[in-house]
Amino acid sequence: MKSYYLFILLLYNFCAIAQNGIKTPDSLEDKSYDELISRINDSKQDSILNLIYINTYIQKSKKENDPEHLMIGYRKALIHFKEEVALKYTDSIAKIAFSLGDDMLIGRLYIDKAIIYYTSKNYEKCLSNYLLADKYINEENDIYTQYKIKYGIANMKLYLGYFDEAISLFSECSEFYKNREGYNNSQGYLYSLRSLGRCYNQIKEYEKCTEINNLGIEKCIGKKYDLIKTYFVQSEGINQYGKKNYAKSIDLLKTSLPRIIENDDFLNVAINYMYLGKSYIKSEKEEIGITLLQKVDSILQKHNYANLDLRQTYEDFINYYKKKGDLENQLLYTNRLLDADKILEKNYKDLISTIHKEYDTAELVASKDNLEKTLKRNKIISYTIYGLSSIIILIITYMLIANYKKQKVYKQKYEELIAKTSEREKQPEEPVQITKVVTDELDINKDIVFKILKGLEAFENKEEYLGIGLTQSALAEELDTNTTYLSKVINHYKGKNFNSYLNELRVNHAVSLLKNSPTHRRYTIKALAEELGFSNPRSFSDAFFSQTGIKPSYFIKQIEKEPDLLMSA
Fold first, then answer.
1. pTM for this structure?
2. How far apart are the first and last CA of the chain?
3. How far is CA 119 from the centre of its chain?
4. pLDDT tens, position by position, 117-134
């Protein structure tokens, strides 16, 4: 709290100095711009001293009526302020940049705005400003800034989950900054490495991530690199979680947490707590883990924020309370998950729109399509979870009742099927009487009808209907007739078409076979289908259900459970 008031006082004093032209210490007035920039860069760990140097730089440029250096001073001040104040400074920078008509300066302005928006998690405006910067900056007029844009777009790809593309860009950036001198290039190199490690962690290349983290820690020499070193330690803590080294993960995450909290980086504080919590849960210390995850929830609620990584927190809560049988907390965190998905959906939709309008390349169009698919999948998952959680008691009750009724119907159909089959086995079907033929309806000679009927009787008695690949044409040829006559006779005497007639014979055969043969009851559905002449298990199962109202698997299980019913039948 003290540090907060100190910052407000500092902000007030700085604004007063900048607006009223209060003199800076005499010891600094005679310093050159390069000397002041050097002091500004070296004092980044001391906010008060850093602002004094920045203010000296600004006052010097105003006094000398030097708009370009004034703009640099304003740009250096941006890191000290939150979004609203920082954006006011970018308005001042914009007036100078556009008045000078310098593409390089205008491009840098848009990069500054993009960074401000990225820090405040406004990803739509961040991306739009990077794309605006790209219109003004190229490798010919400012190669260093061109790579800042690359780095920014790589971060957006990392956020969107396009890790391979992000790896390619971060690799380019790290190679560029690696061989260049100066604090800014060193920072660019280290931050590129850190982001590269995060990408490798996301695609589960944990050893590669560890190699990069160790390299980053090794390169962070000197106090001014302490903060980025902390983030490498945090990255390795997350990476050790992926390697399932939970004790080591906890140790590294605990080490990095205080400095990240001090940096007022709520997002990484939340990520740190999340992986600490998950590591404790994996270490069978669930109560400690859940307490830490509640800290994540508190941060997300305070900032009304969500991202794809932190979304896991709510899934962990739901799984934990489901295991505990705590319906109230299941519902609470299901609603929180839905709220998080709404935030994600809004952010993603905004990004899709910007990508489509401003950067309509084949690469980003493909990314847009992937993103839309992800959104659709997440929306279905979210709505499903919401429905299950919000009315879980009613659903369970309904399912129990519905299942009871269904089982009752199945049982009844099973008993009727057993009885019907037993009756059919006791009383063989009588041959069809030719005297019943109505020739006017069939328009076929009686002798031909009689011949077909006798042929069908033999076809059934010899169980030829079990042949695989049997067709109406093949049967017609076997009975020495044509498909038209055969179809008419089957329709008239059997009351169904050829396929239904064939399926009925096979299903009746299947029922008798399963009822009387324990050996066949041990067959797979696929093996039964082949023996009965069906082309695949699905067609057998569908035909069985269509005719009997139950699946063959249910019929087999029921027979095995109730052998007494077979005896009585």
1. 0.49
2. 85
3. 23
4. 887 777 778 878 888 888
